[in-house]
Write a structure and sequence with these properties.
alpha+beta, three-stranded mixed β-sheet, two-stranded antiparallel sheet, 5 helices, 5 strands, elongated
Length: about 150
């Protein structure tokens, strides 16, 4: 079973963030340039929130907040995260249960990576395919003669 650490190693540890005083537009530009759906909101090295496409739609656009609004006013403040030793399946369960698509990875109080639901689903599917192939090979190799 794959761990968060193995996912981060294969996809890279790149983390994109903005400071809390940056505007919605600043955050959207980073998201567009990097082709991502969320940025972390960091005060130095401290994680204080996350700003996602959903935040922009729900708290920005639909509530009439202009793109000059600071991200700190529209970000999600309660950020769930995982540690490198957690399994991909545990990440998926947390993401499904809490209804979010991005999950920071923290180690010793520091952000070391970011997972998206796509990263997690691809990993879980790959794990299941590997398990099935192993079981098929085992069964084909068994001697069924009695």
């Amino acid at each position: 079973m794959a761990t968060v650490e193995s996912i981060i190693k294969s996809k890279g540890k790149e983390v994109y963030s903005v400071s809390p005083d940056k505007t919605i537009l600043d955050a959207l530009k980073v998201m567009a340039e990097k082709n991502i759906g969320a940025v972390l909101v960091m005060d130095g090295e401290k994680l204080i929130g996350i700003f996602t496409e959903r935040d922009y739609v729900r708290r920005g656009n639909l509530q009439g907040n202009p793109v000059t609004t600071p991200v700190k006013d529209v970000m999600t403040r309660q950020v769930y995260y995982v540690s490198p030793d957690q399994s991909a399946e545990a990440c998926m369960a947390q993401m499904v249960d809490k209804h979010f698509r991005h999950l920071p990875v923290m180690k010793n109080g520091k952000v070391i990576g970011m997972l998206s639901i796509i990263d997690v689903v691809k990993t879980v599917v790959n794990d299941k395919q590997t398990l099935i192939a192993g079981m098929e090979n085992f069964m084909l190799g068994m001697n069924f003669e009695q």
